[in-house]
Design brief:
Blueprint (H helix, E strand, L loop, with lengths): L1 H29 L11 E4 L5 E5 L2 H12 E3 L3 E3 L2 E2 L8 E2 L7 H14 L4 H39 L2 H5 L5 H4 L2 H18 L6 H13 L8 H25 L5 H18 L1 H30 L33 H4 L13 H13 L8 H11 L28 H9 L9 H24 L11 H12 L4 E5 L3 E4 L9 H4 L6 H4 L6 E5 L2 H10 L20 H13 L2 E7 L5 H11 L4 E5 L3 E7 L2 H4 L4 H4 L11
Protein name: Glycosyltransferase RgtA/B/C/D-like domain-containing protein
Keywords: Membrane, Transmembrane, Transmembrane helix
Amino acid sequence: MKVARNLKFTSKYLAIIILFILISFAFSSIVIQDFSYPLTGWVGIGSFGWLNYDYVDLQEYTGYYLAKNLSFNPFPQLDLFNNQSFYPYGTNSVFQPWSLEKDYFYAILYSFFGTGSWLQIYYLLTVLITAIGTFALLLRDYGFARSAGVGFIVSFGNFYAINKYPHHLQYAVIHWIVLSLIADFLIVKRIVLKRHLSLRLILVRACLLFLSFGHDLGYMAGFSLMSFTVSLLFIAVLISYRYLKGKLKLIQEIQRALKTYKNDFRSYPRTCLVLLILTLVAAYFYFSLAFQIGREAKSFDFTGISFDTFWANPLRLLVPFFPFLNPGMGYQQFFSDIPESVGDSSPGWFLVILGTLGLWQTRRQITIFIPLLIVFFLCLLYHPLLFPTLKIFPWYAFNRVGGRSTFIYPVILGIFALHINFDWLQFRQRQLLVGFLVLVASIELYTAYSYRLDYKPASLDQSFFAYMEYVKKQPGEAVLDLFFCIAGSGARPDICPYYGYNSGVFALRRFHEKKVMGQYFGRLYPGQVKPYLEAGWDKLFFPDNTQSRQSRCFNEAEWSFLTDFFKFNDFAGINLYVERFPEKCLNEFYDRLGNPAKETVIPGAGKVQFIPKSSELRKQINLSLGTKVKLETSTEF
């Protein structure tokens, strides 16, 4: 009889996993769409008129950088200060959008197999981990149907996270953070209700804590740390209260727990050992790098430097995902806010209704939800300047985008929804309510996924790879992108007037493997830009009224500066983005520097031609002079 029950349980478990796998493949056909090429391109206007100004290439670059700059002595260390970007001056590359698990995944596959669709595969795996992991964690307490439903919600119904793919992939990848919040809730629930807290659940949470350091370090890993901290403080307060009220004998309870956990370990030695090993491995590969990056970031003093900030009004929680009424319609004037992207603070009506009903019905046991409610309101009410609730945690010192908390709302509301019970309704009322919820869910799924219709992954033809291979084989350690881009919050805008076209061209390094001049950083310290300003590079940009190309050709002083800079530094050649120049100016490049040897099209940046450095100019390389070349201002045209 027991064997039959176990077989039935296993078959149902496998059926749920297979279902999630099938849904994942359907999900990938809509959201990811293509596994043929590396993740590249430019995200433009979406279905509802929302404009995303982001180069997709940035997502692979941190993995490439990790592959080229990681060493072990004996702990993992990154070479952060070099001239691989900001060539030839050099800079500290700490303010990249590090997401260490993603970066390790890409670095390993890139090192063995070269470029490929590694991040598309990684993203699909993380969505699957979110669904199956949620189901596995909740199964014991809430059964198959509820656990599977919440597994679906937090992975395939998290509209904000899904909409972040691919341009903000580091915010679309949420698996360990979702599981961390669920594990914290289960631990708190067991302690509040005085139920057995197993050693395996404690070890799972410890493992998830260190795995979370593999997420984006600027924002995402902090949510796991915040949930852990708030939950731990709540548990400490609760235990202290019980002890002071005489309801808990601390010494006896500790002794009992030690004995219980000893028995737990003996009962499940393999599971416990695997979890301990995974925790140590995650700590080794993630925590040491996270500590180094955090230390380097704090060495910069941004006092007095203003950053662009984004804030989403908490009332956006009430905005549904309907075709005629949805977050993509903006409503900035109505809400008087500055959201960063579609869906900020808007998880959808279905989840808000479901979560509210679940919370209301469990109001007599609301103590089990207190840490979740604290986290929820800290995020919902956060304003980077006026009400910086999250900055009570030191890891959120650089948090300037309030809406990036939105991805945890479906998780919290989904946990609340686990406690819904419709038995108090009459049969007819229950049918109507369930029908209404199914209708809302269906409409919102359709609307949210329709955002993906205008996303078309960039394809790369053979001329692209031939071009990059040619550049890679040319003598010279660097390539001069005309125009390169230096951008980041805190940067002067005149170092990158063509942001919409060239902010990601530095990431082409992963193909041609040459050093580059510009780069995008999440934060850019003024001192990093100083060498460019002193040399006069900002005076070489004069965009026309369309902000898409130069308004004139270079004058003699500007040509003299550009030629000297090109010949003295060890450039393999010039990537000439021809659409950034008036057509009449291109012949000047050919006459002065030679004819292009290769041509291709860069998704987002347009047509590019490679002008290799001539042997005559190569003989004049003098790196000490190269960093000292300055533009002598002139008004001649």
